[in-house]
Every structure is written in C-alpha cells, then in structure tokens.
Amino acid sequence: MATAMSPFEQVSSLPRRGAALWSRLTKRSSSNFKFAFLFLGADQREGLQQVYEFCRVVDDIVDEREMTAEGAARASVELAEWSREIARVYRDPYLTEDPPHTELGRGLAATNKLFAYPREAFDEIIAGVAMDLQRSTYEDAEALRLYCYRVASCVGLLCIAIFGDQSEASRDYAIHLGLALQYTNILRDIAEDAQRGRCYIPLDLLARHDASVQDIFDYRYDGRFVAIATDFAAAAEREYQAAWRVLPQVKGRQALLPAEIMGRTYYEILQEIRARNFNVFTRRASLRRRDKLKVAAIALARAKFAVL
C-alpha cells in the first residue's frame, strides 16, 4: 500500500496543479479574497498564490496531524524542514548552501526577486502555526496578539510586498488589518475551533464575565457569551479603525486596493455577527456574492478618491 505524502512532499507538484490549486485556495477562503485578486497583475497573482499556498501547507501540517504526541512531533519536524526551505529560498549562508528543494520554494525564490519579501514574515508564520502545537488557549490579549500577529499580520506584510508598497505606513496598516481580520476569524469560527479543542478567546476575558473554556466547548450561548463576544468584537473594531487611520499616510494607497477589499469584506462579516447578537454557534457568518461585489466597488471608489 502506498504511503501518504507529507505536506512538504505534496507541494513538489505545484506547477502541474496550478489551476486546481487556485480554485482550491479561493474556495477554502470562502471566496472572500476572489474579488481582491482581480485587481492584481499576473506576476502579483502568482506571488500571492505562492504565499497563500505556503500558509496553507504549514497550517495543514498542524491542523491535519494525528492528535497524538507522535503526531505533534512529526508536525514539528515538518515545520522545521519548512524553516530550512525558507532559508534555502533566501540562500542563507549561515544555514544552507542548497537551492530550494520544492517547486513551491523555487517559486518563492523567483517571485522574491520581484517583490523582496520580508524574510522574517515567513519565519514568524511558521512560529505562529507552531504555537497551535504547544497550546490550545491564551491567557490574555497580549498572548493572543502575538499569535495573531504571526499568523495574520505577517501574511499581510508579505502581501503588501506583492502589492508594491512596503513603506512604514503601509506596514503599520498591514499589521493592524491583519489583527482585525484574525480577530474576526476567531469570533466567526468559535464553534469550529471548539470542535478541535481550541479556544482563542483569552482566558482573562472569559473570567471577567464568569465563564470558562468549557462553556465555549459546550456552545453555551447566554448573556455571558454575548458580553464576551461584544468585548472581543470591540477589540477587532479597534484594529480596523487603527488600520484605516493610518491608510491616508500611505502614498501608494491604490496599490493596497486588494488589501482594502479584504479588510472591508471582513468588516462586513463582523457587522453580520453583531447583527445576529453574536450567535456564532448555529450558522457561520458569511456574505452573499452581491454583497462582496458591493464591498469591492465601494473600496475601489474609496481608493480612487482617497477617502475613508
């Protein structure tokens, strides 16, 4: 019987799977990014495709592992190999003299010549997904913020490299927007994460409202949960507003249009969650296609006329 390939081995066939991969990526993100991708050139789409495949591969190493100590150990080994692959992408002389071993690694090396990805972002993303091997809860907002910075803001830092503006203002925008998107994801996916034995709502926030992780795992929807979700949504709101406050300082604002479409789309998802009084246990919040088109059109108009 043939043995299953590891996620590291599976990406070796990336070029032959290009069309199918692009379809999978847009489907797995519920098409929330599809309209943003329409505003990118061919090289930018290729770069973004590779960045998202990298994120998906390392995330799958953790999420699809066997839930045993041996499974966690194997996942750690595979993540370490991806750390070495990133070193090969950058031809880090202190770590390796080899070229990348995978098609994805070779693709990242090629697009890195065009976009100058910040090296630390890849390393931080790997460190972020590794945190899910080490813990299933977070003590406070500061601990959660580090996780979200790694798995979301650092993706944003890679994206703005592709979009063509890595100024300080653009980096600040990407960091805040990444946090806002991840906080929205956490709130939307509370039930799904609970099924995996994870709770990303900080423990001190639960305690403040006399609740526990077990309440989350039991899908206990009551006044305490609404209060918790209200506070957590406010944290997401603060990050959206911080991102939009810095946006006028970005000289190449139109280059960030794809990011704005992503941000405005997820902001509307946050508003839907609020409108349903934070009942995230019975149905996953999402936007209809026409609503996504409306968000994209408004973001385009805002970028054209430089308004918030």
Characterization of the model:
The protein is 69% helix and 0% strand. The chain is globular. It has one domain: Farnesyl Diphosphate Synthase (Orthogonal Bundle), CATH 1.10.600.10. The protein has helices at 7-10, 18-28, 34-37, 42-63, 69-89, 103-115, 119-134, 141-163, 168-188, 190-195, 203-208, 213-217, 223-246, 257-275, 289-305. With 308 residues, the protein is mainly alpha-helical.
Secondary structure blueprint with pairings:
Blueprint: H1 7-10, H2 18-28, H3 34-37, H4 42-63, H5 69-89, H6 103-115, H7 119-134, H8 141-163, H9 168-188, H10 190-195, H11 203-208, H12 213-217, H13 223-246, H14 257-275, H15 289-305
Helix pairs in contact: 4-6, 4-7, 4-8, 5-6, 5-7, 7-8, 8-9, 9-13, 9-14, 13-14, 14-15
List keywords for this structure.
308 residues, mainly alpha, Farnesyl Diphosphate Synthase, 15 helices
- Give the domain tally: 1
* SSE run: HHHHHHHHHHHHHHH
Helix/strand/pairing class, anyone? mainly alpha
What is the gyration radius calculated from CA atoms? 19 Å
Q: What's the total helix number? A: 15
Query: What is the highest CATH level, the class?
Result: Mainly Alpha
The first-to-last residue Cα distance is 58 Å
Report a brief summary of the structure:
The chain is an all-alpha fold.
